[in-house]
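request received
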Amino acid sequence: MLASQIGYYSLILGLFVSFLITPICIKNFYNNKVIDSKIFSFSFLQFFLVFLSFFALIISFVTSDFSNETVFNNSHSLKPLFYKISGTWGNHEGSLLLWLLVLTFFIFLFMIKSNDQPKKYRILTILFQQIIIVGFFLFILSTSNPFGYLFPTPKEGLGLNPILQDPALAIHPPILYLGYVGSSIIFSASLAGIVQNYISKKWAKHIKTWILISWIFLTLGIMLGSIWAYYELGWGGFWFWDPVENVSLMPWLCLTALLHSILVLEKKLSLTSWTVILSIATFTFSMCGTFLVRSGILNSVHTFANDPSRGIFILIFLSILILISLIVFFIFHEEKKQEISKIYFLSKETSILINNLFVMYFLSVVLIGTVYPIFLEVISNEKISVGPPFYNKLIMPFLIIFLIFMSIGPKLHWIKTGMKKIKVQFFLIFIFSSLISYLIIDNIGFENLINSFLITAAFYLFFITLKDFFAKGFSNLSQKISHFGFSLLILSILLNSFFSSEVTANLKIGEKISFEKGIITFVSTESKKYKNYQSIVGYFKVEDNKKKLIILKPELRIYNQPYTITSEADIKTTLYSDKFLVMNLVKGNEYFNIRYQIKPFMVWIWISTLLIALGGICSLFRKNYEK
Amino acid sequence: MYGKKVKLRFLFLALILISVILSVFLILKSLKENVVYFQSPSEIQKLNEISKKIIRVGGMVKENSIIMDSDKINFIITDFKNEINVIYSGAVPNLFEEGKGVVAEGFLKDKKYFLATKILAKHDENYMPPEVKEAIGEK
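response:
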């Protein structure tokens, strides 16, 4: 009760601070003094107030204060403490408050970390950021107030959707948001940069840190979501090309392109307009992600109950932001004189440009696949969905060329590289990769031209980056790690999809089923009661063709608040493959529905994603070290 | 007539333009081939011909209609106006239950029988396919 009120009023005060900062900034912008320390204090105050508000919400959740509407809708007194806390951002209102918290935190961080930058540029960045912050304050206060008051106070809450009660999903939103919100700084900074005509090598160097930070968090955030989907949803897959997943992939693709083009800007001062456009696009996609997920217009397997009025607010807010950025871009942008006007085909710039074009192509595929169903429904009222074949067909062939460029590109010099650079070694590695792929494809016995080429290209990148680790030691380490991780990711995904096998069956207790890879015996079940759910644990023996026995214990959880059944898959993970068993009970039947999957190289998908992120972390630390 | 630089730039622009057009064409073409239509049992009744394409059928699982045996599950999807029999072998999601919303993906055998290849999970227990929502709303 008290906590809610503190939270609510500090939120309003936080909005008020915005209106104090703005005039100070404008005044400071026009006078000749150094940057006003009041801006620091007020930024910190704003961050503190939002933090207080967020903390108050956590307290309301922890103490199960059901007079708070958000707590009532999303919590239950019997829920474990950990999920009471994570429930704070597991819902719409709380997650937006978290967005705002990260927004105010990042701008404060930006202030104290940008001392070496020009004053006017810094002030303008804060001003642009304040527009976003005010927008979010208004959004939260008008459409999704986390501190709604309920009277009379309900005795018990409705509970959090049990599939969200999971450790990976508890940290997934904050990590993802750090990535999303980090892109807002890039957005504000590049707008400020245009106005001040400050898009320079120095700017590139400074903004690269922010790009890296958002990129790392976004990569990790997507990975966590994917891991969660893998073991919690019971499909045994890690990526479904579902709209909700796609909207997180789009800013990632944009950021990846930006991460590369900023290098060209830093070294050669070219591609300036392109880099700025990418910065704006990245943030727009992050906002679109929030809009599409929260408005409920996506027809997705992840659909949660939604409120359309929120969608309209975000849509208007988004349009205003895009409009502002377009106006700023067209009025203030001046094309910089490039240091060199000639572009050579064989150079690092060109290969980065090609990388960017490919990434943009992937982005448009994902964008069209995600948005087209929405448009069609609005126009013709037909309901369609776009499935994985669409994405696979359009992305895989182009991935081949992309991978080849990824292997050769980093080898080229800036400006110009002669033909001699491309050595015999490259061809030898290429032949070697082709041989290995041939053996693999031959082994599975199905012929698919695109798959064969793709796996060859992935092996090519794999061996080239591997060779580099030994050959050249630690120069350009971050790029090597990330590219190596990417090749490993593509390889694991391909091998995973080639060699996966599964069997589904309906079994009664005591029955067994044999399939081509062994025999599954359903031995028994055991029932247990927990604080907030009842559990049925199945006991399965799986014997493979080599008589090797493993025991899997998938679980069914029956939650009462709210009434939901979830299956907890049992997964035996080894470096070579995952054995995945999930069971389900259809009400009123004695049969258990089971699904057993052998998923090779599953763990490598996560490891390679971690490697990709690790490359970014390396680059971040090395940069600080060089200073 | 023109300098070498201008020519090169034109070539570059033309290349980009061609590749953009090509990729848009490619995307739209495979979009046409790979979309999955969502239909309700009533819409299926109105169909003139049975196509072999994958579709999704959405509705509610009719009460007392689930029959399971060792390798398949039979049930009826209804939108409270029309219904369709579904034959499915495979894994079912957690929220698959009588009286709850369901979306099945697969092929039509005829207007009365649907061979499902996949049953899609919905995370929200109160989820209802849009057609069903409309149908109930009209009642």
